[in-house]
Design goal:
Structural class of chain A: alpha/beta
Number of strands of chain A: 23
Distance between the termini of chain A: 9 Å
Largest sheet of chain B: 6 strands, mixed
Order of helices and strands of chain B: EEEHEEHEEHHHEHEHEEEH
Largest interface: A-B, 28 and 34 residues
Oligomer: heterodimer
Strand order of the largest sheet of chain B: 6-9-10-3-11-12
Chain lengths: 482, 257
């Protein structure tokens, strides 16, 4: 009879299925970071001077900063001078004008990832911006969206064509002084997605960005900016993968969301960067700053994340609730298997009156994974009637992993109501045996148990992605039970 | 249907079962009685496939096939069902989804087409109504926040849906008030068929007034010390396990000088 313990152990040690390497003809600069490199990146992208100067201020600020050490993460020092800060697939001058001009190798890579770029092959109702290493390679459905006044394009294109919007909002939610990785990103960010929804427009399709790191020793520093004008609505999805490599790859992204009065932004991430092998070799270091501001009254921002990849995840998607009656939500599933470490959570900053926030965090630890929830609920003095509900649940598979919770609550208004619930449980042999006694294979049992545990988060995802997320968890958990 | 031959089982260094022989035929109801710690639940769990127990000697045949070599899920798919003494909770997983997955795994194994959601829902509504189960329990997470009685009733409900050939009821009566006991017993009785056998593990005679057994076996310190008809349960009710222990000890002890 196979031991159930062995099953649990194998669960987190599955092969990574997105780890293939694509031979793409790329333009890559030498490793290292100084003012020259920042100017070079800016020049390659043909940026206006104000942006180049902004990058340089960010660089100078970063050079005076120290890498943070407060997270519950252990990793060897990162040598920032060994990293390549710009690499992009070669393309005709000015970038590919249509999908036909796209390097077939790039197209093949996305086909292999299950993200066909041609619009007729896409899932109905999802527009995609595809980013490889430092550059956006394709954006679909742009014309249809433009009819509604929606701008959905690569960040580079936004800088060229919508410079005023970018200038007004860039760094307005996450200033380059915010933290070490945000400063680094601000200096060297290369591409990403830009999205603008005009007043009163309900975006009719899911917008999504697919990020792929391909080049060796290359950091990925993308930047996403989403602006929702009063009364508008947008749902945005982000997916990411990377090849299997023995060395670590750095990913330091910044995402800024701005919701004006009565606007709603839903932002969902399925993060599946290469997690490294079971001995901890390779894997992506994922240091990401995501923050949204509910500027207008009754605006709403929700973050939903399913984090299954990366060797290290450092990420706290947050909401600044400035508008009266605005709502912030954070739904998270974080899975750490192998030797993965995650320190992730959120910040809900209540400034406006009657602001509400909800936090639901589900951490799953398997293998030798270490999973930490870190969250701040801050109610400022003026935030009369603010309410928060937080729920942090941890699930352990096996006995070599860890789950940790670091909740911070700061309340400066006596009318605020803040609730925090936490639980830690172990997938028991009892549960697995119970399922098997009813005819279910051990692996199916674990999947059902884990999916049950994550249900409150999955139901926040758009349908197709909820299915994807469940599959992804299943793949990452396969073999944990025998 | 089930033949247990000279079964010895231990946990760690501790022997729990010391040579059990048992034969259960299709259509029969066997009761296993005995005091706490006599090994009743161990026997049930070993038949169901729990791997925390080590079988050191003996054999178990189910429908002529060596049962101990089968994985727990294979046993379940072949028709072995255990109603747990302590059913575990699975937060977030609805009873319906759980049972649908289980039923389809069993049907697939038997070469039957999977039941779609609509047919499955019709099936479980019918079974739930029969067991007077609150329909709300179907959508609740498996056993989570269920009262003791609800959990036990849920086990019998699952049995009614999965239609096993051999059902083992492990102290299903514990924690039930008399009304719940009657409902559970009615449910079990309605599932009695010529092709189906039951092993009812219980500490008390009470349940056996409602589920009348064909055979009663008394387990003491890992051995079956007495077997008989349904009247044996009544006898035990009158004399208690105390008399039995003295009797068993006398039988087992070597003659003193």
């Amino acid at each position: 009879m196979a031991s159930q313990e062995a099953t649990i152990r194998e669960f987190a040690e599955q092969e990574y299925r997105w780890g293939f390497d694509s031979r793409i003809d790329s333009e890559t600069i030498p490793p290292g970071l100084d003012e020259g490199v920042v100017r070079l990146i800016s020049a390659k992208k043909g940026e206006p001077d104000w942006l180049c100067q902004w990058r340089l201020r960010a660089l100078r600020h970063w050079q005076r900063m120290r890498e943070p050490t407060w997270a519950n993460l252990r990793y060897p020092p990162i040598d920032y001078q060994q990293i390549v800060y710009y690499s992009a697939p070669k393309s005709p001058a000015g970038g590919p004008q249509s999908l036909d001009e796209l390097d077939p190798a790039v197209r093949q890579m996305f086909d292999k990832l299950g993200i066909p770029l041609a619009e007729q092959e896409r899932l109905a109702g999802v527009a995609v911006d595809a980013v490889v290493d430092s550059a956006s390679v394709a954006t679909s459905f742009q014309k249809q969206l433009a009819k509604l006044g929606i701008i959905f394009c690569s960040f580079s294109e936004a800088v060229r064509r919508h410079s005023e919007l970018v200038r007004r909002y860039l760094g307005s939610v996450v200033p380059y002084t915010d933290n070490y990785f945000a400063a680094l990103n601000s200096a060297v960010f290369s591409d990403g997605s830009f999205c603008y929804i005009p007043p009163g427009v309900h975006c009719p399709m899911e917008l999504s960005t697919y990020f792929r790191i391909n080049a060796r020793n290359t950091g990925q520093f993308e930047r996403t900016l989403i602006i929702a004008e009063p009364g508008s609505y947008v749902s945005y999805l982000e997916g990411c993968t990377a090849p299997m490599r023995d060395e670590h790859q750095l990913h330091a992204a910044v995402v800024e969301l701005v919701a004006h009065e009565e606007a709603q932004i839903r932002y969902a991430t399925v993060q599946n960067w290469y997690p490294g092998d079971r001995e901890g070799r390779g894997g992506v270091y994922n240091f990401v700053t995501k923050r949204g501001i509910c500027r207008g009254a009754r605006s709403r921002i929700s973050w939903t994340q399913v984090e299954v990849g990366s060797a290290i995840t450092w990420k706290y998607p947050s909401v600044i609730l400035r508008g009266d009656g605005s709502v912030g939500e954070f739904y998270s599933v974080a899975l750490t298997g192998r030797r993965q470490q995650a320190d992730t959570g959120t910040k809900m900053i209540h400034i406006g009156r009657n602001t509400r926030s909800t936090i639901v965090s589900k951490g799953i630890s398997a293998g030798r994974g270490q999973n930490s929830y870190r969250g701040l609920v801050k109610v400022q003095r003026a935030a009369e009637g603010a309410r928060n509900y937080s729920q942090c649940d941890s699930l352990l598979l096996g006995d070599q992993c860890g789950a940790h919770t670091f909740p911070y609550i700061e309340v400066a208004n006596p009318t605020a109501q803040v609730e925090h619930e936490a639980s830690t449980s172990r997938i028991g042999e009892d549960q697995i045996f119970y399922c098997r006694q009813r005819g279910l294979a051990a692996e199916d049992a674990v999947n059902l148990i884990v999916n049950g545990f994550c249900k409150e988060v999955f139901r926040e995802l758009p349908m197709e992605f909820a299915v994807e997320a469940q599959k992804l968890l299943a793949v990452n958990l396969e073999g944990s039970v025998g | 249907m089930l033949i247990v031959k000279n079964l010895h089982v231990r946990v760690g260094d501790k022997p729990i079962l010391r040579g059990i022989d048992l034969e259960v035929h299709a259509g029969e109801v066997h009761a296993i009685m005995g005091p706490n710690g006599s090994g009743k639940s161990t026997l049930a769990q070993v038949i169901a496939g729990r791997d925390t127990y080590e079988v050191t000697q003996g054999e178990v045949y189910y429908e002529g096939v060596p049962l101990l070599e089968m994985e727990p899920e294979e046993r379940a798919r072949e028709g072995v069902f255990m109603a747990f003494q302590y059913p575990v909770a699975i937060p977030g997983l609805s009873n319906t989804r759980f049972l649908h997955a289980a039923l389809n795994a069993i049907r697939k194994h038997r070469g039957l087409p999977e039941l779609d959601a609509i047919d499955f829902l019709a099936l479980i509504r019918e079974k739930a109504a029969f067991l007077q189960m609150d329909a709300g329990l179907l959508e609740r997470p498996v056993n989570e926040g269920f009262s003791g009685g609800e959990k036990k009733r849920n086990e019998i409900f699952q049995m009614a849906v999965l239609q096993p050939r051999l059902a083992i009821l492990d102290e299903t009566d514990s924690g039930l008030d008399i009304d719940a006991l009657k409902i559970v017993a009615n449910g079990v009785n309605s599932l009695r068929r010529p092709g189906r056998a039951f092993i009812v593990v219980t500490h008390y005679q009470r349940l056996l007034s409602y589920i009348v057994p064909d055979r009663v076996h008394v387990l003491y310190e890992g051995s079956i010390v007495r077997s008989g008809g349904k009247e044996l349960a009544l006898e035990l009710e009158a004399s208690g396990y105390g008399g039995l222990q003295r009797g068993a000890a006398r039988d087992a002890a070597p003659a003193l000088p």
